[in-house]
Amino acid sequence: MKDKVNKYSRKAKVRFIDLFQKNKHLADPLKKEINEPKHEVKGWPLILGYLGIFLIIIGIVDLLPIIIFPFYPNEISRVWAFLLPGLSSVIIGFCLALLLKGKDKARLGKFQDLILLILIWTSASVICAIPYMIPDYVGDIRLGGLGLDFIHALFETVSGLATVGLTVLEGSISPSQLLLGDGHCILFFRSLTTFFGGIGFVLVLTCIISDTYGISLYYSEGHTDRLLPNLYKSAKLVFSIYTGLVIFGTLLLYFGGLNEWTVINTPIGAEGDPTTSSFFEALCMSMTHVPGGGFATRNLSVYAYNSLGIEIIFDILMTFGGTNFIVIFLVLQLKFKKIFRDLDVRLTIIFTLVFIPLLSLISSLSPSINGTQYNFLEALRYNSFYYFSAANTCGASNTANTLNTFTRSTMMVYIIIMSFGAQQGSCTGGIKLYRVGIALKSVYWTIKEKYANNNVIFPHYIYKFGEAKEVSEKDVKDSNTYIFLYVLVLLTLTTFVLFGTDSNYTFLQCLFEVASALSGTGLTVGVTSNTQNEFVLFILTLAMFIGRLEIYTFIYAAKRFNDDTKDFAKNKIFRKKKVE
Q1: In which domain, by residue range, is 19 found?
Q2: Measuring CA to CA, which residue among 548, 490, 422 is closest to residue 160?
Q3: Does a structural domain hold residue 25?
Q4: Can you tell me whether residue 105 is helix, strand or coil?
């Protein structure tokens, strides 16, 4: 009996050994995974690895103007202005991305996503400034850049990425001259910076590689527009809607007058501009005005077309840019009841009905700063356009000079309108109507509760996309704090500009210019175009950068960077003492 048991035991052992040998390729990785710890990348190596992937995207943006050369073959000599920075960014990005290769990625630490966000946008600003900095010619070799110095090139780039639209291009490299000559690729590149700056680099990356990089980074860039539960699908839908609006805007402009067969009635001051337009111009203007950028292909912006019909089309495009993507999604679903119960939408309608008649009445009763006097209908036309431009932080202009339209009173009103901004979750800057609405509601609730019996408790809620949403004390505190910080930053930067600029400009004009830059609007009263002071341009560049990423981003990122620096110093001292 014992021999029989041993016989079966030997057979079972042989079978087990055979089975193990056959499945050794499955067992070894498992054994390796159990015995060997995973290599996990975290902290600054993780941040730099992620930055590398974004640098590849930024490099591709620099390379995209190459697609314009088949349509304008005479501009092929400008290709180096885009190839050099584009390929360099891709190569550097690839090298940094190797930090993540074959390793498990930890989650970004608290507020490290904000540090990464600032690094992404700083890198994009510097890399996209290079085509402006590269000289047109080096000896007999043409590189095709504009030859701007670093501060002017950085200003132009940040103005595009932050969807502001203020420009320092003038003279032989002004937009009109580039359009008339061989600068279509430069104008297209300016439009691209506005297009990608409006939607954000994080959203573009999320469309490509799902939500690997975390929802916190997505929200940090200013996106509150999760249309679908899945972040990847939501980002793709937002990008599809955004691109669809740009295409729709291009077609509206093209068939509305920006085409080859419609003769433009050239206004005074634009005599050198082409008298006909093209699909290229319609595309560039749509790419810059839907995201609220305001970069124009002609020196005089929308005024160069001298057409009420074209102005109305731009009003529509600017309103698209100032509308929350969720609201646009609800429009596509024909859910109008939910739309009109939204706080942002209601404030948009109320402010439009209040400010346009008010501004038009003031302009018709008193002459502008430049002495121009309008009747009420003329004032209504110009102030309606400027209201949509300021409220949606776009910066388009339908007069030869804003000072031809603005009085000192209306200038102050426009500062408030620009600072308010448009709807949360749109392409616009400023405080945002949602925060303004919460602040106004909090005033109403406070007065109501003080007046009523102390035992009465009123519910604090607002309507968001048709549904009642409770507003906590924290929400009210956050909104009021942000508004206070925004005003504080606005006044501080204005003080710097006032001391740095020409004495001919008043505090009100400097305040207007900084408010325009900080809110991402781009309307100007001449401070930007007339100043030669690089310090002033740097302050305005800083204002545009802060306005695009919002104030909290810099505060929390600075706090995290300070903590990381202290921890690194402590660890280094501790290790040194341990060795000794």
Answers
A1: 10-37
A2: 548
A3: yes
A4: strand
Which position has the token pair 């925060």?
435
Q: Is residue 30 part of a domain?
A: yes
Read off the amino acid at residue 194. T
* DSSP-based three-state secondary structure for 137: strand
Q: How many structural domains comprise the chain?
A: 1
Least Cα distance to 521 among 430, 403, 434, 436 occurs for: 430
Which amino acid belongs to residue 499?
F
Angle at CA of residue 556, ends 554 and 557, nearest 5°: 60
> Measured between alpha carbons, how far is 497 from 199 in angstroms, rounded to an integer?
29
User: Considering the domain boundaries, does residue 274 fall inside one?
Assistant: no
One-letter amino acid identity for 54?
F
- Tell me the pLDDT of the chain (580 aa) as tens digits: 445 445 545 555 545 455 445 554 444 444 444 444 457 777 788 889 889 999 999 999 999 999 999 999 999 999 999 999 999 999 999 999 998 887 777 777 778 888 888 999 999 999 999 999 999 999 889 999 999 999 999 999 999 999 999 999 998 899 999 999 999 999 999 999 999 998 888 788 777 665 454 556 666 666 666 666 677 788 888 889 999 999 999 999 999 999 999 999 888 888 889 999 999 999 999 999 999 998 999 999 999 999 999 999 999 999 999 998 889 988 888 888 889 889 999 999 999 999 999 999 999 999 999 989 999 999 999 999 999 999 999 989 999 889 889 999 999 999 999 999 999 888 888 999 999 999 999 998 888 887 776 666 677 888 888 788 888 889 899 999 999 999 999 999 999 999 988 778 899 999 999 999 999 999 999 888 887 789 999 999 999 999 998 888 888 888 888 887 777 676 655 555 454 4
Dist CA 343 CA 226 (whole Å): 18
Non-local CB neighbours of 450 within 8 Å, separated by 6+ positions: none
Q: Model's pTM, two decimal places?
A: 0.88
Query: The tokens of 90 are what?
Result: 């891709």
Residue 17 lies in a domain: yes
Non-local CB neighbours of 105 within 8 Å, separated by 6+ positions:
40, 41, 42, 46, 49, 212
